[in-house]
Amino acid sequence: MISSENSRPAAEGANEKEPVKIILAEDDKDDQELFIDALDEAQVPSEVTTVENGQQLMDSLRDKSQPDPDIIFIDVNMPVKGGKQALEEIKGDKDFRDIPAVMLSTWSHPSDIEESFEKGADLYVQKPNSFAGFVMVLKKVFFLHWAKALLRPAINLFFVSEKNTSESDL
């Protein structure tokens, strides 16, 4: 498990934002780095812990020496225990079910999106093809969806991709 502090204060003094505690479950090291770099570029003050599969994600959540995350990003396709299985365990556990869970996938197949929605995911994000796209998507997740969509989203707000995110949304 890798822990990375990506804290960038929004302002000095009393207005300084508390960093968002994030667990990123992603088996691809390049995608982990891309995610963390995009968060930094999007100016999301954060503390990111990375794990490489669904089993490590569950172990990390159950580790009482660590605080619960504010949000979890889960790659759908991972070895050992896949993202959908981990999501099902998270949403079935009274201690973790209220933590927002965002599914990440290169796929945008309607059945995958629907299944993730039914299992309780809060958002389904199609991984962008570019760094700029990843920055835009993360801005949308954190600045537009945090307040409204993560409070049990409507299906039309559930799927986020680079194609349905524009600069004018931000």
From TrEMBL:
PANTHER family: RESPONSE REGULATOR RCP1 (PTHR44520:SF2), RESPONSE REGULATOR RCP1-RELATED (PTHR44520). Residues 1-20 are annotated as: Disordered. Residues 21-142 form the Response regulatory domain. The keyword Nucleotide-binding does not apply. It holds the Pfam family Response_reg. One of its GO terms (biological process) is phosphorelay signal transduction system. The modification 4-aspartylphosphate is found at residue 75. This is CheY chemotaxis protein or a CheY-like REC (Receiver) domain. Keywords: Phosphoprotein.
